[in-house]
Amino acid sequence: MDALEHLAQKNGITLIEDAAQAIGAEYKQKRAGSMARAGSFSFFPSKNLGGFGDGGMITTRDRQLCERLRSLRVHGSTRKYYHDAIGYNSRLDALQAAILRVKLRHLETWSAARGRNATRYRELFAQADVPVTVPIAAPYQNRHVWNQFVIRCPRRDALRKHLADNGVGTEVYYPIPLHMQPCFAELGYKPGDFAVSEHLAEEALALPVYPELSAEEIEHVGGLIAGFYRGRA
User: Cys staple from 197: which of 73, 117, 177, 180, with CB 3.0 to 4.6 Å?
Assistant: First the structure.
């Protein structure tokens, strides 16, 4: 973020944090969503702090921007039936707010549990000596909140099937790199133009890391992966 802030200030660019999956994460003792002019969070049910449906939040210290956002979320209105700008219907409904308010009390405990689960996965894979690359928080990250635990692994699709056959759900984020998406076909990119992105898309696999996961369940997942690469699948 330091480098991005410097670049933004140097070029007169407004910096906005996409913190959709990072609630509670820290960079140099600063929380995600507090470092730029504005930060955005998602409350989609699969996020670390998820509602019962779609929802989100914007954070800012800029009072003028705050008032502008408050207006835009309700059809550009500051007075009922008077519209100063063309806005949106983006209010967080009361039911979602009530659910999130209760869940917010448990967020710190859940984040700590995700951290323990990630540590246990790394320990298991180191002991098993399998061809799996695990995620490691960067040195400048004071706190990683592990919305996902994504490994890199050869024969990813076969491993995923093996885990599914044994009752372990996984996910691939994201199977198609942006330059290969149909919506960007007009840009003329072809396979091989961004080889690193393509390679990662072929190897990335997200393992279960949710707070309620038990140590025994993590060891079960680790054992299945170790058995797969040792030819016991």
Answer: 177
